């Protein structure tokens, strides 16, 4: 299948074809004694992921584990559907996200408020998973991949309070979810993901420092793909966070409303990203994907929410 890329170490990248597009959201299959799917993609992507697993020899009773880095719908929206396709699989998520997979009503209600009519097209509906099948991870935990291989879980909030990074003991691959931002392999662009309501700058920077301390060999982005330059990329992720926060703080201090703050930050950061830098030469489809996954309105709104919350605390 053209949406499967072998990455070595019995790891396979699966393009989930989010909303029908290529290169937006990746899931990863770790084959072995206890096959494990990292990230399901959206509900509408679930059949695509199932077909990919089938082509890799994973049948309905073979998948041992499904683990998500966090419960945002582009990462975990397909959990309920995948759980139905693979009745023997245990569903693994950080403890702060577990109840939302068992009862997604509140999560879906919030998503409806944010996305409106776009919700069904982009994400579909997260179906509930039986609570008895859900394993809630502690802040530091481990998932058995069989044969002595493990996926260690490391609590890494900042982007979301239910976020974990996952380190493969066999390959040194670190599944970074959204904690290190959004990466475009075609252009090499890296942009932060700072949506409301959970973004916190220092917590996010601490998570990046934690990732560095784990000594991974490669970063596997959910958006999108493998990046071997670990130290440089994590440093760049931290720099991007600081740039966006500094610009948003300036706009907020000047009393700009959200629309004007977004316009200012978007303009001031445009030259940082090859996909956006030249309007006439930019790949408009790539640019649209970038904006969908790390939209300036969402990023700025998340930072403003954090600024106002921390101002109140002070």
TrEMBL record:
Tell me where the transmembrane regions lie: none
**Gene3D superfamilies in the record:** Ribonuclease Z/Hydroxyacylglutathione hydrolase-like
Q: Where is the Metallo-beta-lactamase domain?
A: 24-223
Question: What top-level branch of life does the organism fall under?
Answer: Bacteria
InterPro entries given for it? Metallo-B-lactamas, NDM-1-like, RibonucZ/Hydroxyglut_hydro, ST1585_MBL-fold
**Which SMART domains does the record match to this protein?**
Lactamase_B (SM00849)
CDD domains, sorted: ST1585-like_MBL-fold (cd07726)
Task: Check the record and name the Pfam families matching this protein.
Answer: Lactamase_B
Query: Cross-referenced PANTHER family, in alphabetical order?
Result: METALLO BETA-LACTAMASE SUPERFAMILY LIPOPROTEIN, METALLO-BETA-LACTAMASE DOMAIN-CONTAINING
**Annotated protein name in UniProt:** MBL fold metallo-hydrolase
Give the species this sequence originates from.
Answer: Sphaerisporangium melleum
């Amino acid at each position: 299948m053209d949406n499967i890329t072998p990455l070595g170490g019995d790891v396979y990248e699966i393009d989930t074809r989010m909303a029908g597009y290529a290169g937006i959201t990746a899931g990863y299959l770790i084959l072995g004694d206890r096959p494990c799917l990292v990230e399901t993609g959206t509900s509408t992507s679930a059949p695509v992921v199932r077909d990919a697993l089938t082509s890799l020899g994973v049948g309905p009773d073979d998948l041992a584990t499904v683990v998500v880095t966090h419960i945002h719908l582009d990462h975990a929206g397909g959990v309920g559907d995948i759980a139905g396709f693979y009745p023997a699989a245990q569903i693994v998520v950080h403890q702060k996200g577990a109840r939302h997979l068992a009862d997604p009503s509140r999560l879906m209600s919030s998503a409806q408020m944010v996305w409106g009519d776009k919700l069904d097209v982009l994400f579909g509906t997260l179906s509930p998973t039986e609570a008895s099948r859900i394993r809630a991870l502690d802040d530091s935990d481990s998932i058995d991949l069989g044969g002595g291989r493990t996926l260690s879980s490391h609590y890494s909030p900042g982007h979301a309070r239910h976020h974990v990074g996952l380190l493969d003991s066999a390959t040194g691959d670190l599944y970074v979810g959204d904690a290190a931002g959004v990466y475009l392999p075609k252009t090499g662009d890296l942009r932060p993901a700072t949506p409301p309501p959970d973004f916190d700058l220092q917590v996010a920077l601490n998570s990046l420092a934690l990732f560095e301390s784990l000594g991974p060999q490669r970063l596997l982005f959910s958006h999108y793909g493998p990046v071997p330059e670990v130290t440089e990329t994590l440093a760049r992720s931290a720099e991007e966070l600081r740039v966006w926060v500094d610009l948003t703080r300036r706009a907020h201090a000047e009393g700009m409303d959200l629309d004007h703050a977004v316009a200012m930050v978007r303009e001031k950061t445009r030259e940082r990203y090859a996909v956006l830098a030249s309007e006439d030469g930019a790949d408009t489809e790539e640019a649209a994907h970038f904006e969908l996954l790390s939209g300036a309105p969402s990023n700025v709104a998340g930072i403003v929410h954090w600024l106002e919350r921390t101002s109140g605390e002070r």
